[in-house]
Amino acid sequence: MSQALTLARPYARAAFAAARDENRVDAWSQALGFAAQVAADPRVAGLLLNPELGSDQAVALLAPQGAEASFTRFLGLLSEAGRLPLLVDVAGLFEQLRAEDQRVVRATVTSAAELSPQELDKLRDALKRRFGREVELEAAVDASLIGGAVIDAGDVVIDGSLKGKLARLQTALAG
Question: Can you tell me the distance from the alpha carbon of 68 to that of 57, in angstroms, rounded to the nearest whole number?
Fold first, then answer.
């Protein structure tokens, strides 16, 4: 685990606990996503490291308009601790905690060609049966797979691509 994730984890847990206590998980998710996107911009990332940038200025820069007061206090805490560069990791970990809490599996299916909505629905249903949870499915296309698809659901990766099968065959023949 990277050091950034290790440092970001307690902040993500604290943010999630605050959001859940307020019953505002979705609002916090959107606000964190916005702040992380702004913080990830290279121009902003350099600015966040500037010691001349005050905490109030940083919060004003990163908080979406109309953000909850508790969210802006959270950003202020990150700023005062010098942890604003961790916002992308905090947001990612927050989303993992949210998915676990809502019993949702996030999966990405990468296929050689674009999948139809019906194919995505069938795949979502199959994954729902396998994991026993709701599934949020994101689709991507990678022509280098030649055929088939790769499903990445966190700890579980299912490689049904022709490229993967050829690689496994090559390994078996070489070994």
Answer: 17
